[in-house]
Write a structure and sequence with these properties.
Radius of gyration: 51 Å
Mean pLDDT: 82
Largest sheet: 6 strands, mixed
């Protein structure tokens, strides 16, 4: 910055290895310049120089352009000159604004610095009507309905595109006139991810506005992971996303350094919490596939993402925590800690190997930094060399000496190299054009793949629907076969019933009232449904378990006879015999039975009843005669005793 009031900035550009001084810019001209050139990086030594205009400046940056503070995170900043010396950049006047701008550009080109994050990885998309409906009337009503239908169609179109791109979102709508008055999407992705997928629209009947969600506080993330590794403690972070977010952090020796859970914790708060603990080299989850929330955090920190081969079971998580010997406050902390520790166990053999090599080389003091670089993808030799060179103090630059030799060959060589650079720059530009074309081709092919995936999905749905219909047909065919079997059985029964009706009408048969068991409940059911009157003949399928009480009840009701499939209990037989109520088995009378109906030939029944009653009458007469003879015998014996007693008394008299 050249001056603070009004704000004026010294601007230089770095492109294809060439520095160019652009001059002094006001804040407004600087924003216009950035929007026209669309650079990858806008580098500053301190973003606090923008003051109250910082957020306005960030909102004005075009898509894909990063604002980078090269001196580091707030509270951990270093001077431009020390950073330049560390990265081998020659410095001159430290008070020259253009020198500061040049150093900022060169350091950012080497990946030094922290990107300033003003927005969450969330975007709000609002779909509303584009113009007023005007006052009432039939034509205005039709126009209003048409606009609401257009809003509904646009909401459906955006919803379909987000689903096909597999981007998570929430949707709130306001229904009106069989359409939608407005729709609001909360999309959980960055604005860059929506580029080319959802476009803003204004001026027509339907308006689409896209607004990224601003962070409550600015975030800072390193341009390159190894820079953060050098400056801050390296950690492995486990995250359990959801309504309640669980966060766990362990160092590269497996020790727990942080454990936290919080309800409704936004992405920015998660980012800040992790940044305060250290720099994550691995972000881990306990489920497969990884949730989008976890992927987003990993991308923000440029960390490796750890996903288990299959989602961890609760038993496995509890076993991991028992091995650590710790207790947690809730399931979210447990899941996050299990994910982080699982990632550490996966890397543990490699980390132990690194430890053994570092002990041999005497570099145990820088063990964590070297381990982090190995996790980032460096081999062990490269990581050790990088850390060693970084620690080695920079040698003082030798003072310039006047050439004592002929410099003509060197000048010639410089010119050859300049021509070579120009050739490479042209070749680089051509290759960039080829890359752009290839990217367009890739985008076109990806869209074709998405369309093909949709066709495959529809085909699978059709096949599933067909399979469901085939199964339904099989079930219905089975039910049809069962119904036919029932119909055949009922037809046969109907024939028997008709025959029994004919027999009954002719008077040659007696209908029987059927009971399944001889019990009080079955008797009450029979009385309730068809009644039991005097002179009825009952048919009992299974009389087992019946007692005297129910037999006496049947006698009181005045039934004419009782027929059973199985023999009657002795107590029931005794009651019926005493009351002269005939009882038979079905085999004795040739009972014909169909389901709940039974009949017996009248002639057979009458003959059986008459025969049984005659037998009982004969038995009763015989019993009466025996009884009478027994009484006479008893009287004779008593009379004989009386005569003997009197004779004895008379013989004793004088």
């Amino acid at each position: 910055m050249i001056s603070e009031n009004p704000k004026r900035f010294a601007v230089v550009s770095w492109f294809n290895g060439r520095l160019e001084r652009k001059g002094e810019f006001t804040l407004y001209r600087l924003i216009r310049f950035i929007q026209s050139k669309r650079p990858d990086i806008v580098a500053m030594d301190s973003v606090t120089e923008l003051g109250d205009d910082l957020r306005k400046f960030l909102r004005a940056l075009p898509g894909g352009t990063k604002l980078v503070q090269v001196t580091g995170r707030p509270g951990e900043q270093r001077s431009l000159q020390s950073l330049a010396r560390e990265h081998g950049i020659r410095t001159t006047d430290r008070f020259d604004p253009y020198e500061e701008a040049k150093l900022s550009a060169l350091l950012a080109s080497k990946g030094v610095g922290y990107e300033v994050l003003a927005f969450e990885d969330e975007v709000v998309i609002k779909v509303t009507r584009g113009r007023s409906h005007g006052k009432g009337g039939w034509s205005q009503d039709r126009y209003r309905k048409r606009v609401h239908n257009l809003v509904r169609d646009k909401v459906r179109e955006i919803e379909d595109r987000l689903r096909r791109a597999n981007i998570p979102f929430d949707l709130e709508v306001e229904e009106k006139d069989y359409g939608l008055a407005k729709g609001e999407f909360r999309v959980y992705a960055s604005r860059e991810e929506l580029m080319g997928l959802i476009k803003p629209a204004r001026g027509g009947d339907v308006e689409v506005r896209i607004q990224p969600v601003e962070r409550a506080e600015l975030g800072f993330t390193p341009l390159r992971g190894e820079e953060a590794i050098h400056e801050r403690r390296s950690i492995i972070v486990g995250i359990d996303p959801g309504i309640t977010v669980g966060i766990a952090a362990i160092d590269l020796s497996g020790r727990i350094v942080a454990l936290h859970s919080e309800r409704n914790m936004p992405v920015g708060e998660v980012f800040r919490f992790i940044s305060d603990v250290g720099h994550p080299v691995i972000v881990a989850t306990d489920v497969n596939p990884a949730p989008g929330f976890v992927e987003k955090i990993a991308r923000s920190f440029k960390a490796n993402l750890f996903v288990p081969r299959e989602s961890l079971r609760v038993e496995e998580k509890n076993e991991l925590l028992r091995n650590l010997g710790v207790s947690v406050d809730d399931d979210h902390q447990r899941d996050a800690l299990a994910a982080a520790y699982k990632a550490y166990l996966r890397l543990k053999p490699k980390l132990e190997h690194v430890d053994s090599k570092l002990r041999e080389a005497g570099l145990t003091r820088k063990a964590d930094e070297i381990k982090a670089l190995v996790i980032q993808g460096y081999n062990l030799g490269e990581a050790m060399q990088k850390v060693t060179l970084r620690e080695r103090p920079k040698e003082e630059e030798a003072p310039e000496e006047r050439p004592s030799v002929d410099v003509t060959p060197y000048i010639k060589r410089i010119r050859e190299l300049e021509r070579r650079v120009e050739f490479l720059e042209r070749e680089n530009a051509e290759l960039r054009e080829i890359i752009k074309e290839q990217r367009r081709t890739i985008g076109r092919l990806e869209r074709r793949i998405a369309d093909y995936d949709e066709e495959v999905r529809k085909k699978v749905l059709r096949e599933r629907e067909l399979e469901a219909k085939v199964k339904r047909i099989e079930v219905l065919e089975k039910q049809l076969r069962e119904a036919k079997a029932v119909i055949e059985r009922l037809s046969r029964d109907l024939v028997h019933v008709k025959r029994m009706n004919v027999v009954e009408i002719r008077g040659s048969a007696v209908p029987l009232k059927v009971m399944n068991v001889l019990s009080w409940r079955e008797l009450e059911k029979l009385e309730r449904e068809i009644g039991v009157k005097r002179g009825d003949v009952l048919f009992v399928v299974n009389p087992a378990g019946a007692g005297r009480a129910i037999a006496e009840e049947l006698v009181e009701k005045g039934i004419r006879a009782l027929i059973t499939e199985k023999p009657l209990p002795e107590s029931v037989r005794e009651v019926l015999r005493e009351a002269h109520v005939p009882f038979f088995t079905g085999d004795e009378l040739d009972v014909k039975r169909v389901d709940e109906f039974a009949v017996v030939e009248r002639e057979t029944l009458e003959r059986a009843i008459e025969t049984l009653l005659a037998e009982w009458e004969k038995e009763d007469r015989e019993k009466e005669a025996e009884k009478f003879l027994r009484l006479i015998e008893e009287y004779r014996l008593e009379r004989l005793k009386e005569l003997k007693r009197k004779a004895a008394e008379e013989s004793r008299k004088p």
